[in-house]
Records
---
Amino acid sequence: MPELPEVETTKASLTPLIGKTINDIYLSGCRLRELVPDDLDEMVGATFVRAVRRAKYLILSFDKDGQMLDLLIHLGMSGSLQQHPNTTPRKHDHVIFGFGDVRLHYHDPRRFGMVMWAKDGQRYLDKLGVEPLDDAFDVKYLLKFTQKTQKPIKTLIMEQSVVVGVGNIYAVESLFLSGIHPATPANTLSQDKLAMLVENIKMILARSIEQGGSTLKDFTVGAGKTGYFQQTLLAYGRADKPCVNCQEPLQNIKIGGRASVFCPICQPLT
């Protein structure tokens, strides 16, 4: 699933389209997680103004004769926004915005994503917590949540109502670097440990953004380019392989239905 760094990378890839005008729109007619609005053709003649990321959502803004038209896009499990020269729609291309000689394809094989008017999708944004790279996400903020729950710390930091965009890959990596077992009850962690975890979440996400995100399964960006952060993963996807610190084989448990790889020596459950 595209996570925060992948969505941030997608946002950056849209920069060359700013100032360009939509001259045609293609709709596949397939249902995504939400119905694609049947009046998207209103955007023909609109000029792309900006792209903003909020959590794993993109808000694309267009100006049409002084009226702002805002789209909310979520990439779901397998979605991507790709720019290609004028070509015929491919399988799984569900929305295509024509910008002259460049076409922006919303491509989603599993169809769990969304393309909708932002005003209709505001209910999704209203439930979101803080951005992990903002100053508001600090140890004092996280402590307010950990003190109230015995949930596994991995479950807590992946809750979008607490902090957005810390998906499974980045949760596993941040906990590994912090020496915290993913099943540790949140309310048992010291303030020092939480401070280390916050620092590592910020560092891991920033580093992933710099490297274009992680390419796992279906995710691509721009003109089908892939990210490179997956080549630096220390724990995620490395079950049974030796820990880079102590050489003990990494173990895998399921927490909340998600794979949680950890080192039993470096991340003891205390």
---
Amino acid sequence: MSYRSGLVALAGRPNVGKSTLANALAGSHVAAVSPRPQTTRRRITAVVHGEDWQAVMLDLPGFQRPADGLTVRMQATVDGSLADCDAALYVLNAAEPVGGGDRFIAERLRASKLPVITVLNQIDRLSRDEVAAAIARAALLVPFVELHPVSAREGEGVEALRADLPQLLTEGPRFFPEGMATDQTEEELAAELIREAALLRLRQEIPHALAVDVQEIEPARHGVVVRAAVLVETESQKGIVVGKGGGMIRDIGSAARSALGRLWGTEVHLDLTVRVRKRWRDDESMLTRLGL
């Protein structure tokens, strides 16, 4: 029996649920999820395994207009990754009207000639009639192999989508061993989940200026110790992240520690600091260090 594999781009505008879908398909928490724009900043690999196939999902930053050094790199990641891929999942938010960003991405996908499965996410927010109307709108955007309405958050429709992934794949090698959900390092996974915990708790103006630099992960007597710095750009932002009496950073640390413990199956001791790094989003050396 031949084996099928391929690189599959998760393409969509920011905040349509691409990272939630990547986690659901991989069966593991490999990508940060929050309602904030720019939650996904770099290419995240989520590996989906079948009996005789493997789809390597590339969770890409949302298509956007570059505004600084960080977003320039993010859009370059999208463009370069799309060119490398064998197929795409075109992810739309079923609960929102089709917008200019959706149509722009549709144009890029049509030009790429890649086989596409259209994924209409967040159907849990809609009635049956509203889902039908959303499917009709989405069907006009790009030629597709299949169209799947799903709720990645609730798991509705995800197994049916997973079963259709082999249609996008061609005969090829197994890229990752069975059971491996991502090629991210432990440091990258820790940074993702610490930043997710912060994004879910901070005000709207902070997330774009926030990054996480994981400096060390080492064994402890029980579990592991993770030492990391939360980076912001101003002293006022630092005050917000630290919080009154250190309450905010404690909450962030507690949530991230629990998430990492569940992911790694061990006790996690998290040592978090907050540091000001002015204009880090335009600092090429810092962007490289952060893997962005």
---
Amino acid sequence: MTAKLQISSINSYIDEQLTIEAIGCEENMEVTIHASTYDEKQKKFSSHATFIADKEGTVSVSSQQPIAGSYVKADPSGLFWSMEHVDSKFGDYYEKTNADKVSIDLVLQVEGKEMDAVTINRYFYMNNTVKETVQHGRISGSLFHPKQKGHYPAALILSGSDGVTQEHAAALLASKGYTTFALAYFGVEGLPKDLENIPLEYFREATMWLKDHSYVNGDINLIGHSRGGELALLLAATFDDYQSVVASAPSAYMTPGMKNGIFTSVPSWTINQQTLANVKFKFRFKTITSMLKNWVLKKPISYLSIWDDTLKNQEKLEKARIPVENIYPPVMFIAGEDDQLWPSSQYIKIMEDNLQNKKASQYNRYLYYENAGHFLSFPYSFANLPSNVFMSVSENMILTFGGSKRGNAEATKDSWKQILIFLEESNHSFNKIV
């Protein structure tokens, strides 16, 4: 018996669906495929799935249901999204922001004996896309564009409260025929240390710079997740510079600023040197004691109860509400209905109500995913990378972002297709080559 792995492509884009098969086995043999990779912090993630070889001595990961392993239903991407941190009880957060390839080791075992091993490489961009590091005045970030000379629609990609640039997202979208700019706005040299008092004029300056770029046709699309989604909606409601907006897991309100990753009472945003209003946190004693109990018992902590307390009086929140009715271009809203970081699906329903009578609202898209949590879509999530549900903040504190690994992965896969369709429909001058 010479069993081996057969992969449709050793080198592929991260969003490509691969065919993984074990061939050369014998009928009814127990076949296990292991997958492992490392994130940017060198944390190891792994998964496995066990199958029974068919009468041809073959296992097809795409069509066969595992009899045991990290996932339970037939899924061509199951070995990828089901990977968990090997040193964490809850499968810690997979960290990826740079555009470097992801290498995944696949190992084939037949009846417990190792028979083959293959390393596959998943790319966010290849040699048909160019990366440029941008430091233009105050503006800082990473730009990606197609190598072929041309005028392309552009996308400004906004990070969330982690403050890093989403280079991997920008690179992947650039490979689809866009000029993309992963913009930094705090936490890097030359910019504010924390997410506080960030001037909206900074983003307008970045937008104008991008609009004038030689590889841009003048159309700028905004894409943001979480705090980046909040920011994308706020910018589109403030400036008439954008072709479309994609806001995943956004807030409907301006949220307080953060210091060292912790919410504080400082404002997040300013315009014309004036601070913009933000929601004021309210805490019930019961909420705090419940969270402390979970912390002591090392159980996952949800932030949702804090928002339940904070959002009770809608009238008091009106000054902090993002005036989405002022947004002219089409918007795609994306939310997981089990978001445990904040109630993004509730936020989107509030905004959907505020946009109902607007003429442009017929072009808006609303994507709600029942079994998904906070990290459910581009630019933070990819179906062929480990799905993020939990994060170990410290040895004793674990956060839950909601959803399940499968639910998040399915939402990511579907929403990525929907995002690409939405962007193409919003950019009629797509990919004009000179």
